[in-house]
Give the backbone structure.
Amino acid sequence: MSIGNKIAWDDTVLPFQLDRSDMRGRVARLDGVLSGVLQQHDYPAPVEALVAEMALLTALIGQTVKLRWKLSLQVQTNGPVRMIATDYYGPEEEGQPARIRAYASFDRDRITDAPPFQQLGAGYFAIMIDQGKGMQPYQGITPIAGNNLSDCAAAYFAQSEQLPTTFALSYGRSTEPGTPEHWRAGGIMLQHMPKASPFAKDGGSGEEGLLQAGDLVDGETEENWNRVNSHLATLEQLELIGPSVPPTDLLVRLFHEEQPRVFEMQPVRFGCTCSEDRVRQSLSIYSAKDIGHMTTDEGLVTADCQFCGAHYELDPATVGLNADGND
């Protein structure tokens, strides 16, 4: 595979449809996005892995949001990793890249040698969609369950959307010859079209009675679901991450009997929306007394962005309720 082709598929999401089985899906490859997310922080290895998985899920799920919409994934737990938050910003205009950012909050002293998912503990997995000013945000949550974050995402779609959904993900440090070690990730997301899952069986087969994809399929739909998932089970991790197998070739290899069709590829980039203006806006609700408590010994009000690491230093006289001279 040429370098040109490799670069063309890095940091992209490719939507596709399987006409024979009435299923849709996305293939994602992340490279520079993960570098942008992870290089901002000194995360322990298990936290890096969780953030990489969450960013990959965000790319796969977020591709469906409309222009200028924002999709957020969040995990809150009582474990060593207290929170993981990711944002997917839909393109501003057709043809422009989407943007992804992510960060984690954790107790370093509680991180163990256990697998990454076991660092989470009990809690919830949430998906939020912000459609813009004047629109009511949407939020759905499901308990942390299964063996990884992709199981949580699949449980969310079964519970909240009643859409049979499955994921195949791979991520890790790439050690390609001639390039510095860095994170790469790749994944496939598959869903039955909405009309294929109009019902849910009584009770769920997952943990705590949660619905799973298998609870939502029946008859011919179940046949299609099982057949396509048997194809998906033949995946090798390196096929997902690349760089030697283009996503189009991977879809043909896996699903040539399912009549795959691909649609326009969506580029994604690491990107943050923080700015000095946003910091000033967030401080505008505080009184002069409050601002005084926030002022450092150097006479500055400071703020740091958890997502991108940007550091802001502001004159206390220019922020807060009294910044414009009004009482």
In short: The radius of gyration is 22 Å. The chain has a mean pLDDT of 86. The chain has nine helices and 13 strands. The CA atoms of residues 304 and 311 lie 5 Å apart.
